[in-house]
Specification:
It contains 17 helices and two strands. It has two domains: 2-80, Serine Threonine Protein Phosphatase 5, Tetratricopeptide repeat, CATH 1.25.40.10; 88-330, Up-down Bundle (Rhomboid-like fold). The chain is an all-alpha fold. Helix content is 75%, strand content 1%. Strand 1 (119-120) and strand 2 (123-124) form a beta hairpin.
């Protein structure tokens, strides 16, 4: 009973240790199926990659011992070697982005149907076709521009965004898991698109960089506010993310001064959205000092749900009123 109460504690380290001891007790008593379930809970709450790998190994052996499926066994052993059964999601994000971008570049109708077109010939396109808020991340460059220079520019734009997306997605996946990665990337892309629509309503926009900046914002916000305890490689990347953001923002504004067509509004909009999520929601797959002294897991889950719902509500209201906001923005002296 004491172990079960500790397993529900708000302190993640205490919760993990209690779950591991409870699972060991269940193994000693012969209840292997129940032990597997408790070990899975312990794996989710493991404070570091090393301890998570140890628990995954035990899950693999127990699953094999109880006659579980070979696929489940191999998945557990893969996680114990540093793999993750959802790591493929990041690769799929990159593959889909690359494939659709290349196809759209050579198929003009597809490009036109996916690009972030806000206003065209005085008509409000975006309000009637809201999917463009998301699909903008799947197209790069423009087939409407001819020549070798256009192809080269598209290739550079796409490759740079794929590299940045790979980095940002892996960091957010490491800190928060696959579900939040996909949801927050989508929210970030929408936030970036709305910022672009309000700031540059007559300019057609393309690219995943707004969503990438949102992922960077999540990682930076988590690093600033929660100081997640992660392995050396992830720690080094988190330490560099702030510098990468500054360099990319300065590069974007600098290129625009030289006549470039960088959508800095999308970058800033995505970054602000990501920072909001990263600062207010503690990493769920890494221990942090704030989480150690935070509230109970159930309360934290409710709080996270309210935060995400609030952000989503703000985006919906912004979308419904974006033409008026764009007109208001046009009256500003900047």
């Amino acid at each position: 009973a004491l172990l079960q109460r500790a397993a529900a504690a708000s302190d993640r380290e205490l919760r993990f240790q209690a779950l591991r001891r409870l699972a060991t007790a269940l193994v000693n008593s012969g209840d292997l199926e129940a032990a597997i379930d408790v070990y899975r809970a312990a794996e989710r709450h493991a404070p570091a990659a090393g301890t998570r790998a140890q628990i995954a190994t035990r899950i693999g052996w127990l699953t094999q011992e109880t006659g579980g499926s070979e696929r489940t066994v191999q998945a557990a052993f893969s996680r114990s070697r540093g793999g993750d059964r959802y790591a493929w999601v990041v690769r799929v994000m990159l593959l889909v982005t690359a494939a659709v971008s290349v196809a759209a570049f050579f198929w003009t109708d597809l490009w036109i149907s996916l690009a972030l077109i806000k206003v065209n010939s005085g008509n409000d396109i975006l309000s009637a076709e809201p999917w463009r808020l998301l699909t903008v991340a799947l197209v790069h460059g423009s087939p409407l521009k001819a020549g070798v220079g256009a192809i080269q520019g598209t290739a550079v734009h796409l490759l740079f965004n794929l590299f940045a997306l790979d980095l940002g997605a892996k960091l957010v996946f490491r800190l928060y898991g696959v579900g939040r990665l996909l949801l927050w990337y989508g929210i970030g892309v929408v936030a970036a698109s709305l910022a672009s629509a309000i700031w540059l309503p007559t300019i057609w926009s393309v690219g995943a960089s707004g969503g990438v900046f949102a992922l960077f914002g999540v990682a930076l916000g988590a690093e600033w506010a929660h100081r997640p305890l992660v392995e050396r490689g992830a720690r080094a990347a988190l330490g560099q993310i702030g510098g990468l953001i500054v360099i990319n923002l300065l590069l974007g504004f600098g290129l625009n001064l030289a006549g470039g067509g960088i959508d800095n509004a999308a970058h800033v909009g995505g970054l602000i959205c990501g920072l909001l999520l990263g600062v207010t929601i503690a990493p769920t797959r890494a221990e942090s000092l704030r989480r150690r002294w935070g509230g109970a897991p159930t309360i934290a889950g409710v709080r996270e749900g309210l935060i995400v719902a609030g952000v989503a509500a703000i985006l919906v209201v912004t979308f419904l009123s974006w033409p008026a906001l764009a007109q208001l923005r046009a009256t500003l002296p900047i």
